[in-house]
Amino acid sequence: MPVLLITGASTGIGAATARHARDAGYDVVLAARSADKLEELAGDIGALAVPADVTKWEDNEALVQRTLDEHGRLDAVFANAGFGGARGWLKGTPDEWRTMLETNVLGAAYTVRAAIPALTESKGHILITSSVAGRRAIAGSFYSVTKHAVTAMGEALRQDLDGSGIRVTLIEPGMVDTPFFDNRPSNALEADDIARAVIYAVSQPPHVDVNEILIRPTAQSG
Length: 222
Prior knowledge:
The strands form 2 sheets. Strands 3-2-1-4-5-6-9 form a 7-stranded parallel β-sheet, sandwiched between helices. It is globular and about 50 Å long. Helices cover 44% and strands 18% of the residues. The termini are far apart. It is built from 6 helices and 9 strands, in the order βαβαβαβαβαβββαβ. Strand 4, helix 4 and strand 5 form a beta-alpha-beta unit. With 222 residues, it is of the alpha/beta class. Helix 1 crosses helix 6 and helix 3 packs parallel to helix 4.
């Protein structure tokens, strides 16, 4: 069976994607810092759980190696780990900004870098969670700044890997009802809606590279 590695897999979009991928016939490897939630999900769907901090390069190396040791291959990686913060340039703290930058940008870059050799062998697929906030600036949002970097990362990777057989897809959700929000939004997408988009992208024939999928709820104006 093909193998999909998902970071940020313990809740929200990552967890929903893991369930949909298992139903679609993938062996799934789950990675997150929250070991308890990760193990519970892994037990539910029959997946491999590997606690990891994506901001640490060595954790990403170990994560890919564990995947290869367990399954012998890696066909797709979904660099999904990330988090947001309060809007307003004087909101939050500089330390929170640093952690957000390290997780959302460097974490995704590290995961992808660690996976590229195995994906070159399998002519596999890279998926990265960006956001609608990575396509338009949001006032006072450092999260938006990080997601603009992620959007650039997707295109930089696509150009760099042209001719390798590796496909690159940016997943760009609008407002999604996940634990990302302290106050759950109304009229939002569900995590399952994003998971279906991931499965759509990876299920295309090898000559089709779906570069970007922007998904917003019908009621979202921005």
